[in-house]
Amino acid sequence: MNALENTVETDQSITDQEKIENVTRRITEHGNYLRKRYPILQYQSALGAGVMVFSLVGMVVTGGLYLKGFIPAWTCILINALLTSFIHEIEHDLIHRLYFRKQPLAHNAMMFMCWLARPGMPSPWLRRSLHFHHHKESGTDSDVEAWITTSGNPWGVLRLLKLMDGFIFGFLNAIFAPGWRQKARLLGKIIRLNTPFGLLYWGCWYVFLGYHLYGWLGSIIGAEVHSSAATLALMDVVNSVVVILIAPNLIRQFCLFFISSNMHYYGDVAPRNALQQTQVMNPWWLWPFQLFCFNFGSTHSIHHFVVRDPFYLRQMTAPYAHKVMAEAGVRFNDFGTYKRANRFSMNHVQTRSRG
Questions:
Q1: What's the structural domain count of the chain?
Q2: Could you tell me which residue ranges the Fatty acid desaturase domain spans (predicted)?
Q3: In 3D, which of 114, 160, 124 has the Cα closest to residue 145?
Q4: What is the pTM of this model?
């Protein structure tokens, strides 16, 4: 019986591998066709740099218009959230060395600018090793990147809090870890991953929350809240940074993590099987989230088959790629993933949290 089971598993593995190779080949060929049809796509590094400059300049201009009083805070926040979603895609492509591969100065300069525009995230150089491992072991217990986005956690208030505030998520994991050595190790990792920009980013956010919460509570109980001139001057800076940079990134990160953690599977995934690692999630009602993560749920699965194509080309290949992936058995809009805590098996029922 064991020999028969091993034979069946081997045959299934070969069959899946053939499907994966077929999907990869056909999407790659379609990408080559688009590059020939639209010659501008051959200038990949220039296009990536152009999107990067457009996004950074857009953030600066929008921030200036807000500071001068020409646009309200909510307009600035939404526009910059959209622009930082472009920058996230650029950073992801840079991690795969899709721009300026042979020009390290330009490549690393773009990496650094991506980090400045998204300071609440670890440096892209640190993320590179985690992301490469994610591609190799996607959906398995060693897939740290998926775990960071909350994939595999049962849905509830705790997971929503983790999606909204990754720093507190990591801090609480460290505090409640068993043993002092484990606590110290996790706290040290959190500090290392957030040094230096993340500590400034989250520190500014918590000062903003604390100050305005203090004022709000004072107004509720009828107590007068007095602030010194220095405090008011500091809060003017903090408020501006929150509107221009922090709040847009919080919106972008929540939307990205919400989409990413549900279109990736975590658990019951065969090792290095791209057919099981992800699904395509593209219903109309997800568009408010897709808007701020550049249609991630619809196109990221393509990336698990063909890594070499930049984010804008994945958008162009999506209609064809979806057809090819569906033929191979990739799932589409499997909303049962919410009940199964993102496990691939349809029979799994969530029973516990992974913390």
A1: 1
A2: 71-334
A3: 124
A4: 0.90
